[in-house]
């Protein structure tokens, strides 16, 4: 098989593995009613499953990144698929909340190993110019996993019940592991990769070097500031905000969430091409995404009473930029770190958005609980106050972005790459245009 065909095959297998990881990630969220019935528990206990799973995912990003640099993406992806299969099998037979929670911990752990491995395969198999667009496509096509859990998985759950549904998604992961064993290779380099002995000193030095490079931290703050808002909306508070806060029907709220996925799919390639064409202006794209998210939220939160549908659609369109914007963080990690440290750096970046989302999801719940005294119903005013927590995260993220960007530019200047201020570039272009006409 020629290298380029091989590269596409490797990307295809990685992509399918990531789609299946997203299917596992979201499969519990869509089985809320069945889970409440099976375990005889409340909605808040079930919501804590999402939080624990995210916590495991975010907490494992750095260790998994280190492991990726040591054992390579193929093995890590296979381990991830097997761990997720085990997690879903545990959930399939679980009769108590504790056992089910153990299953979700395994799913979170396996999931944490998948995306970083796929990004590493893309970086190893494709020329650098193609990587930004393929990274965007990986992120957005992966979200198809959400559709798989919302439609065929729910269908199997309704028709055949809990154990067959979770048992069958476990078997899909076993298939992914077999596919990866058969078709994946870490890189096009035919020489086998020497097995690296893991030493604490080596791990510590990689961690330190990745963290010390301001480009890695710029990636982390990028993922943090752009990624969290979309995740908070899609994973937890979007549906209640639209239904309990804005008075929309469940059908309309569902359509708006679908619009968010579709608009994200359209925006991803555009962001990828812009990053590919203007690598020195990536941070402006990031600031643009944060500005779009913050302005749309401000307009909706400041609107007296329920916002009109057109404004909610604008909010959804701006939030659809959240995922594509966060992927720019991975591009910073890739371009500012050598290949042998890329896993560690990618893991660090991925901690950003997931930690910010986790903190925001929990804090919003807490503020609502304080305002309502723990009652199970809440309204627009409670949601409005709680959602203002977004500003704390944006402010923290913006400080992080601007500080690390300054450090990155200083380091680039020391290597002879000077990024001219955007004002200067616009002025120069204007002068050139005048001169030509
Ligand atoms: N930002 C997401 C990926 C994404 C792209 N478009 C929509 N979502 C991300 O960071 N993904 C990591 C993962 O494990 O899913």
TrEMBL record:
GO terms for molecular function: transmembrane transporter activity. GO terms for cellular component: lysosomal membrane; plasma membrane. SUPFAM superfamilies: MFS general substrate transporter. This is Lysosomal dipeptide transporter MFSD1. InterPro entries: MFS, MFS_dom, MFS_trans_sf, MFSD1. Residues 10-412 form the Major facilitator superfamily (MFS) profile domain. It comes from Phytoactinopolyspora halophila. The chain crosses the membrane at residues 7-24, 44-64, 76-99, 162-184, 218-243, 255-275, 284-303, 309-330, 342-368, 383-402. Homodimer. Interacts with lysosomal protein GLMP (via lumenal domain); the interaction starts while both proteins are still in the endoplasmic reticulum and is required for stabilization of MFSD1 in lysosomes but has no direct effect on its targeting to lysosomes or transporter activity. Lysosomal dipeptide uniporter that selectively exports lysine, arginine or histidine-containing dipeptides with a net positive charge from the lysosome lumen into the cytosol. Could play a role in a specific type of protein O-glycosylation indirectly regulating macrophages migration and tissue invasion. Also essential for liver homeostasis. Keywords: Lysosome, Membrane, Transmembrane, Transmembrane helix, Transport. Signal peptide: none annotated. Pfam families: MFS_1. It is a multi-pass membrane protein. It catalyses: L-lysyl-L-lysine(out) = L-lysyl-L-lysine(in); L-histidyl-glycine(out) = L-histidyl-glycine(in); L-alpha-aminoacyl-L-lysine(out) = L-alpha-aminoacyl-L-lysine(in); L-aspartyl-L-lysine(out) = L-aspartyl-L-lysine(in). It is found in: Cell membrane; Lysosome membrane. Belongs to the major facilitator superfamily.
């Amino acid at each position: 098989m020629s290298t380029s065909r091989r590269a596409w095959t490797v990307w295809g297998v990685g992509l399918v593995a990531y789609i299946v990881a997203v299917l596992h990630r979201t499969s519990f969220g869509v089985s809320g009613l069945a889970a409440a019935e099976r375990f005889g528990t409340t909605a808040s206990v079930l919501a804590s499953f999402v939080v624990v799973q995210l916590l495991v995912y975010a907490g494992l990003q750095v260790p998994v990144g280190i492991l990726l640099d040591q054992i390579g993406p193929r093995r890590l992806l296979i381990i991830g698929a097997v761990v997720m299969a085990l997690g879903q099998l545990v959930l399939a037979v679980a009769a108590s909340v504790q056992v089910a929670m153990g299953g979700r911990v395994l799913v979170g752990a396996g999931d944490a190993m998948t995306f970083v491995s796929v990004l590493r395969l893309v970086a190893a198999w494709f020329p650098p110019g193609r990587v930004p667009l393929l990274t965007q496509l990986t992120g957005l096509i992966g979200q198809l996993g959400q559709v798989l859990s919302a439609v065929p998985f729910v269908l199997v759950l309704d028709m055949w019940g809990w154990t067959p549904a979770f048992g069958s998604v476990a078997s899909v992961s076993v298939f992914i592991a077999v596919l990866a064993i058969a078709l994946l290779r870490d890189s096009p380099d035919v020489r086998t990769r020497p097995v690296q002995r893991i030493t604490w000193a080596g791990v510590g030095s990689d961690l330190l070097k990745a963290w010390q490079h301001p480009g890695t931290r710029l990636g982390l703050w990028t993922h943090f500031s752009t990624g969290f808002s979309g995740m908070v909306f899609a994973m937890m508070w979007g549906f209640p905000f639209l239904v309990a806060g804005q008075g929309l029907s469940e059908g309309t709220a569902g359509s708006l969430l679908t619009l968010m996925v579709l608009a994200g799919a359209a925006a991803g390639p555009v962001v990828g091409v812009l990053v590919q064409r203007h690598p020195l202006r990536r941070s402006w794209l990031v600031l643009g995404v944060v500005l779009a998210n913050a302005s749309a939220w401000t307009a909706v939160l400041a609107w007296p009473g329920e916002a009109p549908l057109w404004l909610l659609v604008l909010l959804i369109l701006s939030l659809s930029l959240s995922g594509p914007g966060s992927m720019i963080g991975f591009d910073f990690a890739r371009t500012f770190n050598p290949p042998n440290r890329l896993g560690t750096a990618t893991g660090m970046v991925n901690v950003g958005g997931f930690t910010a989302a986790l903190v925001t999801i929990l804090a919003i719940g807490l503020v609502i609980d304080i305002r309502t005294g723990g009652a199970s119903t809440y309204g627009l005013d409670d949601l409005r106050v709680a959602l203002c927590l977004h500003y704390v995260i944006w402010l923290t993220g913006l400080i992080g972005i601007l500080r690390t960007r300054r450090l990155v530019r200083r380091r680039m200047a020391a290597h002879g790459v000077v990024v001219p201020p955007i004002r200067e570039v616009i002025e120069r272009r204007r002068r050139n245009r005048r001169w030509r006409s």
